[in-house]
Amino acid sequence: MAQDSVDLSCDYQFWMQKLSVWDQASTLETQQDTCLHLAQFQEFLRKMYEALKEMDSNTVIERFPTIGQLLAKACWNPFILAYDESQKILIWCLCCLINKEPQNSGQSKLNYWIQGLLSHILSALRFDKEVALFTQGLGYAPIDYYPGLLKNMVLSLASELRENHLNGFNTQRRMAPERVASLSRVCVPLITLPDVDPLVEALLICHGHEPQEILQQEFFEAVNEAILLKKISLPVSAVVCLWLRHLPSLEKTMLHLFEKLISSERNCLRRIECFIKDSLLSQAACHPAIFRVVDEIFRCALLETDGAPEVIATIQVFTQCFVEALEKENKQLQFTLKTYFPYTSPSLATVLLQDPQGIPQGQWLQTLKHISELLRKAVEDQTHGSCRGPFESWFLFIHFGGWAEMAAEQLLMSAAEPPTAVLWLLAFYYGPCDGRQQRTQTMVQVKAVLGHLRAMCRSTTLSAKDLQTAAGQGTDTDPRAPAQQLIRHLLLNFLLWAPRGHMIARDAITLKEIRPQ
């Protein structure tokens, strides 16, 4: 071991002198000399890396004070970068100099300088005259050389990582965790280079068997930031791995979505859908663990805003996108519905998950009654002794807003007596915290409004005052009261369906006879 150390020190001095000569002259003789020594220099680099990886960055600088100069000269030599695996080994050596937790400005500057060298190594933007001379003899144009070199190296590393992932517990053929960690460190300043995408993807998908995460936190943060800023495009499978391995990235993506929704002046449902699909959240949520985190964040937002309609609308659009992605990914569910909605009845989730528009119109009322029966049992049955039952049932129900729309349409379009089950369903949708007596009172008020709306349908003339009369059937003056919200929902639907409904709505707004919530 001592002899190896002496030999390495001697070799170090020899190659330092060689690099200085190569660096100072660009003659044909120095180029020939460089090419003659490339294999030997690569072997020296390999030995240097084996020594450096056993030391921390401070020890490396103490033992080899000029190591930065040596590696920098090698990094700027196009012949060295072009030879075999020298480029890759140079990256390993540079990573050994990075201080994981810099304690002072000097160490921070050193890290920054090393990142600059790493960026240069894999950069496709420099085509020096030496490269032109070297590649011209091989029949390549300079502009074709560096991109090809970068692409080949990235594909080689990505292939090695995939093999590492497949080898599982075969430790003899697995890449050392330290190398994987170093790779993730190297990628941080290079993530936005398009040719590095396969390596980033391979790192995210490659799972080791170590008890702790081996990829650098900075790597996860940099990848997620690049995804949010649309500077990198990765397949959904890689994004899923990112969010499963680094929860803060998923949380930041959710916050980014909320920021976009809040900062946008007008958020129609189509615009919300574009934001959600663009974020990849609905596609990634096909994995139950991600869905549960996203759903929990939505739950907190709902509670913090006292059930704001904007939050409910976002949840409903997200659920539509999620169901669409789920159907696209697999015709049969890979996971049971219980894994997505653990706090509610699987039978209720199964019914709600159906597309209301996919059900024959003749079965609408029957399906709504079935949903109402399941919800009512979960809400009013006290035998389970669960205080979270009503809220969890309502939280599941509001995910699927199409059923509330269908219930309102059924009440307005049917000439028969309003079904109690459908009235209860809408009363629960708007007043989940109401007790039995309050909900019954809401149903009575809504029934009276429906009676006036049916009378208006039979009338040959409709006016804004008729609408005012119908709206006045509610006894609550608070516009946020469940009865008022439900009545307003029915009135808006009535205006959409009734002849001259749009004209009446315009008159009503002009006269301020119906005030928006």
Automatic annotation (TrEMBL):
GO terms for biological process: cellular response to oxidative stress; interstrand cross-link repair; nucleotide-excision repair. It holds the Pfam family Fanconi_C. InterPro entries: FANCC (IPR000686). Keywords: Cytoplasm, DNA damage, DNA repair, Nucleus. The keyword DNA damage applies. It is found in: Nucleus. GO terms for cellular component: Fanconi anaemia nuclear complex. DNA repair protein that may operate in a postreplication repair or a cell cycle checkpoint function. May be implicated in interstrand DNA cross-link repair and in the maintenance of normal chromosome stability. Upon IFNG induction, may facilitate STAT1 activation by recruiting STAT1 to IFNGR1. Belongs to the multisubunit FA complex composed of FANCA, FANCB, FANCC, FANCE, FANCF, FANCG, FANCL/PHF9 and FANCM. This complex may also include HSP70. This is Fanconi anemia group C protein homolog. It comes from Callithrix jacchus.
